[in-house]
Amino acid sequence: MSLNVVDRRRINGPQRSVEPVYTTKVVDPFASGRLDERALDQVRPIFIKTGPLDAQSLSAAAPSGSAYYEQGKIRVSCAIYGPRQGRKSDARMGSFDCDFKYAPFSCSWKRSHIKTSDEKEIALMLEHSIAPAIRLETYPKASIDAFVTVIESDGKAATIAAAINCISAALADAGIELYDSVAACSMALHGEQW
Amino acid sequence: MTMEIDEAPQKVGIAARIVTPGTAITNDPAFMRGHGTFSEHDTIYSSVAGVVERINKLVSVRPLKQRYSGEIGDIIVGRITEVASKRWRVDVNSRQDGVLLLSSINLPGGIQRRKSESDELQMRTFFAEGDLVFAEVQSYFADGALSLHTRSIQYGKLRNGTLVTAFPQLVPRSRSHFHTLPCGVDVVLGVNGYIWVSKHVSASKVEANAELIYSDKNEPISDDEREVIARVANCIQLLNRLYVKITDTSIIFAYEASLAHSVKDLLTNDVAVELAHNVMARLEQQA
């Protein structure tokens, strides 16, 4: 994704922007717990709310299910559309499609409005992790679409895990048949310790 | 932090409890599994988030939200999405689009008229994409899609009004789904959650104009009539927001209570809550 592409429909900010650095002292991330003062084996506190995108007015375009997920600084929102008429009219199983997008203001540098290959790769990852949990054989010819938007991100792996949890909550809110809800978390190996 | 493993499923005593997908409900072989469940190795698990219901030997889980799934005889309102060969595809707020066959509609000029080739070639003169149709579910196709028909003078194309979308579970099945309210407005309660509110047109007028059943032209509607239609539509909306069953009685109660407010105030939260409680109180009183 070239940094030189200029979007003519919008007032463009600077081509390259980085978060200002506030501290001058150098911190060793693993010296005394993590940067945000969590213990090494502690997860960020979780908040989930289902149904934030339910129809508020006359609109027939509301999603079947939705969820808002917060984990520490990570904020993710997911909308589920479906089960609705699928594109293939001869499919014996339903199809599950995932769409993943970072909001331009979600990371510590400005992201482009256009979907990058990074976001497409993460969308595939989400599809592969969630689709096995859905009882797609009970939805022939139907398609279930999940749209994930990252409102604030805090580490790529942790954000992907948060997205998976958010989609699970939204699927349960939509009343879609599942074998189980999918839970995810990210881990790192530091020396000998996970 | 230790994780607690799910408790072993109880043999009996399936009290009404809230479950999430993957929760084991029972491993007693006497029970049959119903909607919202699946079984693996003799254990019945829940597949949705909802409440466990047990009727005799049948265990099912009722989710908090459910897509409309049609039953034969349901009266519904749908929107034409596609014109295909000798059929129309209709959005009925369900998992799949419903199908309205050319042989299932009333051809203008009398029911006895035979379907001709020219009818197949000018299907858009009957229903075009975007039209709203009032139909009944006749049967299912092999893949579960609903087959609709409009073979009665009361069914057909909808005009002179506005569509309100509600939760399908709030529209109970009853003997009649077409109501004329005392305020002079017709309401069509589709069991799939699509509700049509329109200007009242007398039945005799409809029958007199048998050739105009597929006309796209609205009657002239005065400003006062439009205001009444908008008021009824907003009343249905607030009943939907506060999860009150939508019947002709509850709409009439809501309409009467709403006269104290202006039409657009009915969309605000405070007024909606007040009116909904009013309606619920009157409905309880009546019961």
Automatic annotation (TrEMBL), chain A:
Superkingdom classification of source: Eukaryota
Name of the molecule in the record: 3'-5'-exoribonuclease
Gene this chain is encoded by: MTR3
TrEMBL record, chain B:
Record's protein name: Exosome complex component rrp4
Species this chain originates from: Coemansia furcata
